[in-house]
From TrEMBL:
Superkingdom, natural source: Bacteria
GO molecular function, one term: NAD(P)H dehydrogenase (quinone) activity
Cofactor: FAD
Gene Ontology biological process: aerobic electron transport chain
Protein name: NAD(P)/FAD-dependent oxidoreductase
InterPro entries membership: FAD/NAD-bd_sf, FAD/NAD-binding_dom, NADH-Q_oxidoreductase
The family this protein is said to belong to: Belongs to the NADH dehydrogenase family.
Keywords annotated in UniProt: FAD, Flavoprotein, Oxidoreductase
Domain FAD/NAD(P)-binding span(s) in chain numbering: 6-323
Length: 403
């Protein structure tokens, strides 16, 4: 190894961007070269993508330029697609080149998991990044714009079908409940013709919340026109429908969005890492087993919650906490010193139900609902922009509109 180590960070999401920021604080330019690779020249707030997809915020609000928050004179920024990591030769293969590393931070985030459901990958939209979310927004708007202009229009063209009532599905239908009345007004369509249907295999939505909060969320969304089909498994997705339940009922729609699950970046598999459900079961110091110089963070990491006997859910909150530990551990590896174990500090969870409503459990389990939860969600969203982008970015992109 050279006297000056080369630290390569893959991905400028919550985990990768925060790690890079922390590394620039922990190392002087003389001590280490830091390189950040990301497929776009911008970071996006994945946690706002349901709003982009529904059209309740502008896609540009959910992203900011990486070079605005990371000094390119300090960190080498490479905008390229990571295809594979060759761990044997400490080499990263990019679409347009390659680079070597002494220390690697793998933080390429999540991809959609369709669990092999027939037709789902081919026919349904997914909320994964800015582009896929913007496509959903445009598709929905096109369906509304076409409705009164095409003699062959069917009422089901105005149906929006959402598969999965986890956090993403529920937050998305909450935004749709806000957006649909605006679109009806814009395109002279009777609101009663539009259906938002959320299909979920389990008997309940968001099982991690108290029953009272779940009932509140269901009623709030149902009052605003969201129809739930709970305890109904989706067996297949066709071009214009879901096939659901034991009797293979067909539900037709003009827009179909799958929010039924996520997994880690497929680059992990391409690179030969051993996987647990698409992720790397990391050691307690967040290193990949068998590799002293490779950290795996965020949604690519399977981090066990030993107390609960299951992995921690993949969240932005956890990804940013991984980043802090990882940066300090890289410093210990370079300078010598003990590595820290990752300990998750749970700051609570909030799910939005549209712009002005939500449910949450914060401050050691205190339940929140309604406007208080929606306000808390905006605080959380703004905090993340501040931590990654600083005050200037927060003032440009933050959510400050009163409601
Ligand atoms: P990501 O944020 O996915 O970042 C990965 C980065 O890597 C991206 O910049 C991507 O462009 C880049 N990349 C990917 N593949 C490649 C490649 N091959 N080459 C180069 N670059 C690549 N969590 C919460 O804690 N709170 C919430 O309120 C919340 N809301 C959410 C709402 C939605 C709609 C969704 C989908 C998720 C939400 N989550 C929330 C979960 C959270 O977004 C993820 O856990 C988090 O994004 C994981 O961070 P990450 O850094 O691992 O990956
Ligand atoms: P998820 O795995 O949490 O939920 C997917 C849902 O789809 C589940 O309820 C599952 O039962 C359902 N489903 C799966 N297969 C199905 C089928 N064949 N038919 C019908 N329903 C089916 O996925 P998600 O909502 O995308 O969330 C991913 C992660 O991101 C979670 O860990 C979550 O913690 C995090 N997240 C957090 C927030 C927040 O904190 N506000 C928001 C969004 C996502």
């Amino acid at each position: 190894m050279n006297s000056k180590p080369k630290i390569v960070v893959l991905g400028a999401g919550y985990a990768g961007l925060k790690t890079t920021k922390e590394l620039t604080k922990l190392f002087t330019p003389e001590e280490a070269d830091i390189i950040l690779v990301n497929k776009h020249n911008y970071h996006y707030e994945s946690t706002w993508l349901h709003e982009v997809a529904a059209g309740t915020i502008n896609p540009n609000q959910a992203r900011f330029m990486i070079s605005d928050v990371i000094n390119p004179n300090r960190v080498r920024l490479i905008y390229d697609l990571v295809e594979k990591v060759d761990t044997e030769n400490q080499r990263v293969v990019l679409e347009n080149g390659e680079l070597t590393y002494d220390y690697l931070v793998f933080a390429l985030g999540f991809e959609t998991n369709t669990f092999g459901i027939k037709g789902m990958a081919e026919n349904a939209f997914s909320i994964v990044d800015i582009e896929s979310s913007r496509l959903i927004r445009e598709h929905i708007e096109l369906k509304f714009a076409q409705y009164n202009n095409n003699p062959e229009s069917k009422e089901s063209d105005l149906t929006i079908l959402v598969g999965g009532a986890g956090f993403t599905g529920i937050e998305f239908v909450g935004e749709l409940a806000e957006r649909v009345p605006q679109l009806c007004k814009k395109y002279d369509i009777d609101r009663r013709k539009v259906r938002i249907i959320n299909v979920e295999a389990m008997p309940s939505i968001l099982p991690m919340f108290d029953k009272d909060l779940v009932e509140y969320a269901k009623k709030s969304l149902a009052d605003r026109g969201v129809e739930f089909r709970l305890g109904t498994a989706i067996n297949e997705c066709t071009e214009d429908s879901f096939i659901v339940g034991d009797d293979n009922e067909e539900i037709k729609a003009g827009t179909i969005v799958w929010t039924g699950g996520v997994t880690g970046s497929s680059v992990l598999g391409e690179s030969g890492f051993e996987l647990t459900r698409g992720k790397v079961t990391v050691n307690s110091d967040l290193r990949a087993p068998g590799f002293d110089n490779v950290f795996v963070l965020g949604d690519c990491a399977w981090v066990m919650d030993e107390e609960a006997g299951r992995p921690f859910p993949p969240t932005a909150q956890a990804a940013m906490q991984h980043a802090d530990i990882c940066a300090r551990n890289v410093k210990s590896l370079v300078h010598g010193g003990p590595l820290e174990d990752f300990v998750f500090h749970d700051r609570g969870t909030v799910a939005s139900l549209g712009v002005t409503d939500g449910i949450g459990s914060v401050f050691d389990g205190k339940p929140l609902k309604g406007k208080a939860a929606a306000a808390m969600k905006k605080v959380v969203d703004n905090r993340s922009v501040f931590l990654l982008g600083g005050t200037k970015t927060l003032l440009k992109k933050g959510k400050f509109r009163p409601f």
